[in-house]
Amino acid sequence: MNTLHAHLVRLANQAGRSASLPTHSESHPGCFEDPTRSRLRALLAQRHHAACEDLPGVAIAPGLQFVETTDTVLLNGTAIASGRLAVDPIRCSQLVFLDTETTGLAGGTGTKAFIVGVAMLTPPQIRIRQWLLTRMAAEGALLQSVAEALPPNPVLVTYNGKSYDLPLLRTRYRMNRLPEPFGDAQHLDLLHPVRRRYRNVWPNCRLTTAETRLLGTVRVGDLPGSEAPAAWRRFLATGESDGVRRVLLHNAQDLTSLARVLFALNAVG
Amino acid sequence: MPAMDRFASAETPSPAWAMTRWIKQIKARYEDRITGHLVLAARSGEYAEIPGSLPAGLRTALAARGIRQLYVHQRQAWDAATAGRHVIIATPTASGKTLCYNLPVMDAALRDQAKALYLFPTKALAQDQLAELLALNQAGDLGVRAATFDGDTPSDMRTAVRLGGDIVVSNPDMLHQGMLPHHTKWARLFESLRYVVIDEVHSYRGIFGSHLANVLRRLKRICAFYGSDPIFILCSATIGNPRQHAEALIGAPVEAITASGAPQGERHMLLWNPPVVNSELGIRASARSQVTRLARMAIRARLKTLVFAPSRLMVEVLTKYLKDVFDPDPRKPARIHAYRGGYLPLTRRATEQAMRAGCLDGIVSTSALELGVDIGALDVALLCGYPGSIAGCWQRLGRAGRRQQPSLGILVASSQPLDQYVVQHPDFFTSASPEHARIAPDQPLILLDHIRCAAFELPFVAGERFGELDASDYLAVLAEAGILHAEEGRYDWIADSYPAQAVNLRSVADGNFVVIDRTEGKRVVLAEVDYGSAALTLYEGAIYMVQSQPFQVEELDWTGRKAYVTRTHADYYTDAIDYTKLKVLARFGGSKAGHGSCYHGEVHVVRHVAGYKKIRYYSHENIGYGPVNLPDQDLHTTAVWWQLSREVLLAHFADSAAALDAFQGASHAMHTVATLVMMAEARDLVRTIADGQASDAPGGDVAGGPGIRDESGSTSEPALQTFMPSLYLYDPYPGGMGLSEPLFQRQRELITRARALVEDCTCAEGCPSCVGPVIGDPREPGRSRKAQALCILGLLAAP
């Protein structure tokens, strides 16, 4: 094994490719070849189990953690009746705030969502549900749970979801041979109205910028979204769950902000 | 009438007599240089009925374009494809191959809304084909939606192509990097994919072909996921093994159609051997000088001329020579253009258009033009040197007279042995079967790259095969490297990257150097150079030429893969001097070879570029040297080698220098016949002489120029007691490309043929055609290089 690896690395270098095969810094369950393999497997399974115990929420299927939180959220108004946002009058109960955390930003069929967060409003309450993969194999279960959680005729609210989260989820449903639950649901991607209005006003149009400028809040101790993939890979490999817990918080915060930004935009007109 | 006839009225053909007269003239004037004149008579067509089941609209479209019957091979292709058999059509240039696939594809689109994917090796060819499809579509008002999808497709068009395209015209690179990794977006295409059309498959040999075979393994994997199982229709120029090559590419049985029913204009072919300028040394005038002269004469005779040069460097040199004559005034539009890989696409498109429009009188090109890029009517094709394969020869010569006019191709031999063999045996062209295209889809690095890409596209299940191959070792390596996540018998992609981006189908690995012009503070990318040739062409001090404009390399950033050049006015060009060391790592097999032995196995090659020569234009004198300081180039590859025991060598040779010289001579002949037998390009096989007992002696320090480069520079002279020269032939690619084993299997034949080559050569003491150039005073009879090399070959031959 190691010799094949070394051989391939050597050939790659000779062909002028230096950084193509990362040297292995993380060990992975399932690819040990030595005789103690089964024992190691058992230990890893135990460690994995313990790691999942550290996580918030409950395991609703093997490898799938479900986290539900309810919060009070201050909103600018009680309904959006806004022609200003270019949508039909919407009832709050239809609004589905959606945000994913993914294994990478590269796109394509190799990128997965390891957290899908969905939030719904019954003002002033916001109910946040999050599904977290603790094993690769649970992806199908995650996608099914998310599909079952959507209300009839949902209006999706995302931030850059039209070009990122939704296409990615659609790909995942297709890859798992599952029916895609979004159909032609109405979709409010808040990035677009924010861009239209503030492109020349703010330094950038990221969600955190919108929070600061529109809502006047600043996140403390937030894990940057760019570090999420590494945190999850670390969890899978070593069982270290701190990172993943922070990703869950980050995701929940994004969902709350989505709701508040929507109402703020609605109020600003 | 067949499709080709519609061109006839669109052009003003140069009269047949002009060509005939010119041929007569040069034949009279240069009788002693012309070793053969082949005439392929004009041929009338063989026709078949248009299939009765063809939809009426399609029939109308054909009629509107003047097609009332098919060539017989077009009908055969229809019969095979519509019966669900994979098929390859291997017929000459301009035999109407396009219709072979357009008919079944259009039929399926009209009848069943079935979809098709077309792959062409270049974007330019894809554009040509799309125009063809659209014309057919328009002629019958068929409503079939065809579109190209490549790097130039605007993003707002892409979705439309994905969702609505009946025929998607693309290239292997786009399928590899843009489509397969996003297959969910292409679900509609993959779900109802009926046909995959791959044209110009003869160009998918060696590395590119090995990559394509793996891209197709991935394509079939994705198709299986969507429940489709497409039929492959492949087209090729004439090659020796169309069926086998097609089967290797797609990994399934294929039916081959090789007889063309298309008519053809009269074709002349002259074999041209440059005159001997030094009869003792067997030195001939260079092919370059002869080609320059012929090109000037042809262009003056108002014949549109295409010159094929053997290397990018030679393209630039020849372009300069022709421009010096025909483009003396830079304010006028150029009559001569250079065309080669490494030029930016826009430059190439401009040259293609100018040639089609008839604005150019001459093009000097590398094999980049060999593919079916449409450049309009040409009268004369000049080949500067044998391109290394019969198929390549016909493919290039076929660029002249595509449209049923008399045409002329002249093969001008260089002093290379292969060339000399070919021009001195004119029957070679008529009797020998064309080359076999070879690929090595299981080359370890290429395989690793594509298994990685495949894992990104769909997870691997433990035990799943990739093509016919057990992928488990590779998956384990990728899991160990943290790229895949192994869990419950499944390998899932987990890295945050897009693997197809890092895999270039045209090389074993992607480490291209960019050449940046910083003359007068500019920063313009001039060209790209692949990793393997960077050390030989981009060392500091090198003259790098683009459109025959010399640029000097001022700085080479090896790690950053950049070479900075400035415009210069040098009257010389540069050529690298390099040395090779070789060490055997493992023997895979061995057998007796006469008094010696033959092995094949894995070797470690180290190539060192020591310096470079400055060579003056026209006179070709050597006007100086420069040093080169570059890291050595390492290479693990596979080789076949022959060696003789010390006792045998001591009994036959006076000293190590004599033995070494004899081995050099023998290796020359062996390389020639190995290239011929394997039907490989000369550059795909490298010969070298090195120490045969790496175990108890330091790695052989003996220089043997790789490939066609000749042994230049000095060689150390170890005592024969400690040094055991061995003759190596190896693949110059990391991991090898699978040539050494077939060579080993045919080692007896190689020795026999090499002996015959040297024995039958008319020279006295050895010449570039048999054992390589002989330098120095004539030796006593029996001690000539020729005699010595024959001694080695005799010792290695079976009794």
Keywords for this structure?
heterodimer, A: 269 residues, Nucleotidyltransferase, domain 5, 7-stranded mixed β-sheet, 8 helices, 7 strands, 18% strand, globular, B: 799 residues, alpha/beta, Rossmann fold, 34 strands, 34% helix
Of all chain pairs, the largest interface belongs to: A-B, 50 and 51 residues
Strand-residue fraction of chain A?
15-25%
Average predicted local confidence, pLDDT of chain A: 83
- Tell me the number of structural domains of chain B: 5
Please report the number of helical segments of chain A.
Answer: 8
Radius of gyration of chain B: 27 Å
For this structure, the CATH topology of chain A is Nucleotidyltransferase, domain 5
Shape of chain A: globular
Please explain how this structure is put together.
The complex is a heterodimer of chains A (269) and B (799). Chain A contains 8 helices and 7 strands, in the order ααβββββαβαβαααα. By secondary structure, chain A is an alpha/beta fold. Chain A has one domain (29-268): Nucleotidyltransferase, domain 5 (2-Layer Sandwich). Chain A has a 7-stranded mixed sheet with strand order 1-2-5-4-3-6-7, sandwiched between helices. In chain A, helix 6 (207-215) crosses helix 8 and helix 7 (228-238) packs antiparallel against helix 8. Chain A starts with a helix and ends with a helix. Chain B folds into 5 domains: 14-41 and 264-431, P-loop containing nucleotide triphosphate hydrolases (Rossmann fold, 3-Layer(aba) Sandwich); 47-257, Rossmann fold (3-Layer(aba) Sandwich); 444-502; 513-570, no CATH class; 575-796, no CATH class. Chain B contains 24 helices and 34 strands. Residues 1-13 and 694-718 of chain B have low confidence and may be disordered. The chains are: A alpha/beta (269), B alpha/beta (799). The interface between A and B is large, with 50 and 51 residues.
